[in-house]
Amino acid sequence: MQQLKDLPSWTALLRHRRALQDVSLRELFERDPGRFERFSANGPGCLLDFSKNRITHETLDLLLALAAERGLESRREALFTGEIVNASEGRPALHTALRGPASPPLRVAGEDVAATVHATVERMAALADAVRAGERTGATGKPVRDVINIGIGGSDLGPRLALEALAPLADGPRVHFVANVDGVELERALAGCDPETTLVLVVSKSFGTSETMRNAAQAMDWLRRGVASAEAVAQQVIPITANLERVRALGLDPELALPMWDWVGGRYSLWSAVGLSVMLGVGAERFRSLLDGAHAMDRHFREAPLARNLPVILGLLSVWNATACGLRSQAVVPYSERLARLPGHLQQLLMESNGKSVTVTGEAVTAETVPVIWGQTGTPSQHAFFQALHQGTDTVPVDFIGVAAPVAGECGDAEALTANLLAQSQALMRGRSADEIRAELTAAGAADDESLDAAVAARVCPGNRPSNTLLLQDLAPERLGALIALYEHRAFVEGTLWGINSFDQWGVELGKQLAEGLLPAVRGEAEPPANADASTRGLVAAYRRWRE
Ligand SMILES: O=P(O)(O)OC[C@H]1O[C@H](O)[C@H](O)[C@@H](O)[C@@H]1O
């Protein structure tokens, strides 16, 4: 695989970046009154303003040339048509099929994936409808009032985000999420639930993730104590997995299991049976709307011209900022408390997908790949880390996410929220110069002496700091689906440019293996493994002393 940095358009892009170095965003806006029209584009139910990036039309042309050199359009077709885009695991990545139409068929290795997917959604809907109507009861005949979703990573973050975002529409049983193995979430969930009226979803593609299996065992014990028989327990536990053998081994009923498939990665799996908790919470119809929204974004990604294509633009700008301009961290700031889980979901989506150091063919990658993704909701983050965004020594590109129509039932001040969003992106772009501050301070009566210089210096905001603003029409399920799918495809675009495999996650395995090896020593049942280093041994010993 040719390295990104060896492509002819990369050299041209770097030359262009140097030429642009001394031009500020403020100047770019002053020069071009049509900048917003030029650098904004519409997607399904959303508008992306990317004009506050340090780019000109030439930047965009060069980035598009780079995408062409990387064969982005044919890679995109390969993604949608089920080719093996996950080379290290020899699999396609068909999350788009999870929200695609039932026909025409989509054949992968002899199987009609579209038909399989639709049959599963039907099964999910039948179960969700019956639970929500009180027809599918617990083992003792009482209707289900609570659902506990036990899963971690992709088996947790997407559904958790979706249900928080759609909470005003939730009219089914209460849904609790349990991911961590420290027991806090599980205890909190169990404290409010009655074993006779609780359905437990054990969500794990592998059905081997230790945190999930431990939490599931605890929850099953709790059910057993409450409803007495093992058969009853099995009736109240729905496994969602690609590994039915392990379901059987745990004494659970494979007939009740809903499938996952090896052609869907965990972080892309919200749209599969992994989303059952969402469907139970808001109903099958709204879950289908979520799928429809994601599908609308899929079509936009597949069909819109690249220069007006939201995932393409976001992906190219990310490569521009992170790799060409060396900005190694990016913030995501949604202006809606309902999207509080979005930064966490995007951390997994983008950092697990593109946190890679080798190309798809195994050479060390010479381009810097995924930057650190982090964030929190506005406005609270304005009173926390925004100081560093405005005046810190690092430039951090920000994705601002706004929602035009507040979700029904909310009583907040939507306009105040939006004014804050717009103000922050404007402040990052424009900054405040020494001359402007000096004029303000002297007009307010400050003496023009040495202390004024220090007062001015402390107040200068350099500006010229890039951001995107994504404005969603509202937070209806369709919009949420489109938003999440937008970032999924952005990950794909970035990964394609960097020349890496966005669909594996081998790096996660090492820690898992070491944890299993260390567990007996941490429990005080054995010495640390022979290959444990001095630091690890010292920490195990200190931990044991305090546990005794
Ligand atoms: O669904 P599971 O098999 O339990 O996996 C849960 C999560 O853990 C893994 O370690 C991966 O890093 C994630 O991509 C995955 O979503």
Automatic annotation (TrEMBL):
EC number(s) per entry: 5.3.1.9
An MF annotation (GO) of this entry: carbohydrate derivative binding
Reactions accelerated catalytically: alpha-D-glucose 6-phosphate = beta-D-fructose 6-phosphate
Location of this chain's protein in the cell: Cytoplasm
Pathway note: Carbohydrate biosynthesis; gluconeogenesis; Carbohydrate degradation; glycolysis; D-glyceraldehyde 3-phosphate and glycerone phosphate from D-glucose: step 2/4
Gene Ontology BP terms: gluconeogenesis; glucose 6-phosphate metabolic process; glycolytic process
Pfam families, A to Z: PGI
SUPFAM superfamilies associated with the record: SIS domain
InterPro entries in UniProt: G6P_Isomerase (IPR001672), G6P_Isomerase_C (IPR023096), Phosphoglucose_isomerase_CS (IPR018189), SIS_dom_sf (IPR046348), SIS_PGI_1 (IPR035476), SIS_PGI_2 (IPR035482)
Enzyme superclass (EC): isomerase
UniProt keyword annotation of Cytoplasm present: yes
GO cellular-component term (any): cytosol
Keywords, ordered alphabetically: Cytoplasm, Gluconeogenesis, Glycolysis, Isomerase
Active site (UniProt): 352 (proton donor), 383, 512
Family membership noted in the UniProt record: Belongs to the GPI family.
Described function: Catalyzes the reversible isomerization of glucose-6-phosphate to fructose-6-phosphate.
The protein's name: Glucose-6-phosphate isomerase
Lineage: Bacteria, Pseudomonadati, Pseudomonadota, Gammaproteobacteria, Chromatiales
